[in-house]
Amino acid sequence: MKNEPQPRMVYVAQPSLPPLEDFMPYLEKIWSSRILTNNGPFHQQLERALCEYLGVAHISLFANCTIGLVTALQALRITGEVITTPYSFVATAHSLLWNGIKPVFVDVDPDTLNLDPDKIEAAITPQTTAIMPVHCYGHPCDVKRIEQIADNYGLKVIYDAAHAFGVRCDDASVLQYGDLSVLSFHATKVFTTFEGGAIISPDAKTKKRIDHLKNFGFVDEVTVVAPGINGKMSEVNAAMGLLQLKHIDAALEKRRVIDTMYREGLASVKGVRCVNDAGESRANHAYFPIMVEHPNYPMSRDQLYQVLKERGIYARRYFYPLISDFPMYKGLPSAARDNLPVAARASSQVLCLPIYAELDLDVVERTIQLIRHPW
Q: What number of other Cβ atoms are within 10 A of residue 215's Cβ?
């Protein structure tokens, strides 16, 4: 294998871009209208289209998911302590700090890598005001258990649904659970607007407050009702979303094929565990994480990562390190490694393999063979 030709670089995710000529009519309309932002026609059109596609009633577009998370916490007036996961992208916890809220980390379930409901309940204190779970890799959390816990203790629930575009649970959108859900439309996501995000609201009143907050708190030209932020999505980003939406079902089907190839190709590899599939009707195949369980597998996760990298396949150790290991969090009592054994183990073993709509199936097969025979 060492003498084989070097392939082009292959990364975990690449944006699914339509032909440039398909995008030009949108740009021409933006140019001719001279409306570049501030709730323009494409912005409004994309909100309506996403409500229909996702099966939700109210959606507010944002410049990115992080600002969406910050605004969601502000919209619900969350204070004190919020229970969340250490096994996520750092923006999850950063949104809490931006609002002056104390993150309380609890461990994750070993199969789904989502927040363990039993650990949530054990961590509740008089200062707890909310729970912020993550639908990790697009696999739904135990939404019914979390809802029950929140109801019993009078807590709000904000889902970081960055990975969960189009994911369903009990034959309905998973975005309908919790008080708010926040999506990401980053370039690496299943559905992209280059940069972008959205908050899903349960009612028109909540959406109205969120729309005020994302525009500095303005209600009209002379009235500001809250210290909001500039979270608006531009017309160019919204146009990209409208174009992407035309191709999303085909892209999801291509991802499903790649997911199936990986699962079948790696099923018999000792020491390699594919993270549980959420099921064909529920998953969006946003990521393909495996757990490299050395010494059952002949090398460590980091060694396999390097083997793939040397052959032009850039897998990702996602999520590594844990959020709780970063300097601004590691001093918290809940960040102690002894408190998070499952998350710590997953972080040391996880490797996300390339998966995106335009990924060549020959590369998928080659990746499988490298994992099966890494020497």
A: 17
